[in-house]
Amino acid sequence: MDPLTEALERTAGAISSSINGVFADLEEIAAAVTAAANAAPGIPRRGEFLFLKQELANFIKLHSTLIVGAGIAYAPGSLPEAPHWLEWWRAQPKGEPKFVTHDLNPESLNYYDYTTREWFTLPSTAGRPLAVGPYVDFGGINSSIITLCVPAPTAQGIHVLGCDLTLANLEGVFLRALQLRDPAVVLLGPNGRVIASNNARIATGTLLLDKDLQRATSSMDVSSEVPARLPWKLITLKD
Questions:
Q1: 19 and 126 share a domain?
Q2: Domain range enclosing 125
Q3: Of 166, 196, 214, which residue constitutes the final position of a domain?
Q4: Phi, psi (degrees; rounded to nearest 5) at 138
């Protein structure tokens, strides 16, 4: 095997392994949400899901090298207390994750309608875990992120568990595994945005230009086993 192919396979393996580990733990929490909803007498109330605060706090701290926050978005109309409800926690340098307040009042100028966001609609429609982005999280940390999403189906609708990964954290995994300065290698999202690269001219979060795509010499799926869950590619570019 030539050194470049070996480096690409090593990088794909490192990224896939890191992300799949996060997905696996998030899926366990989603399964607990489904179980709690099914076990509730009648229509579940918010009190049935109080365990999530600690579960998600532990989850954020466990994966703190990758993720910066996590939470749950409930299916519209599924809770008696409110037509819409979103609970999200953000990692802190020290101590417990901090609860993030979102304006869920449709009459407000700052209304955050999570039901229209891809990180909520895509896993709900597909019925399976997937990675969404990169995109700019104007409703949260105002930077380019990727959200890993897992649906939690219940009789009242599909809730979505999610966690946010910054491109800077993913770039660290990418560069440590790649260990190459040449040729230019890009980790590309399905929306054409750069997740990471080893070339200073190709900035993370930007759209890969057509002139750059025309220089592509090879392409490798990051997750060959489940590409729909993690639809990222490693692309090499000639000088």
A1: yes
A2: 14-166
A3: 166
A4: -65, -25
